[in-house]
Amino acid sequence: MAVNIEEKVKQIIVDKLGADEKEVTPTANFTNDLG
After folding, report:
1. What is the pLDDT of residue 3?
2. How far apart are CA 20 and CA 2, in angstroms?
């Protein structure tokens, strides 16, 4: 179940922030890496 939640959150970040899917990792920082 955790994988499903992680994938959903990852997709939301990609959709809303326009982040590269490869950059969205559990250790990524919103401000420094994705923003």
Report:
1. 73
2. 21
Q: In whole angstroms, what is the distance from residue 2 CA to residue 34 CA?
A: 22
Domain that holds residue 7: 2-34
Name the average pLDDT for the chain.
87
Q: How many CB atoms lie within 10 A of CB 31?
A: 6
Stretches in the chain below the pLDDT threshold 70: 1-2
Residue 25 is given by DSSP the state -
Structure tokens at 5: 């939640």
**Count of domains observed in the chain:** 1
Signed CA dihedral, 9, 12, 16, 17: sign only: positive
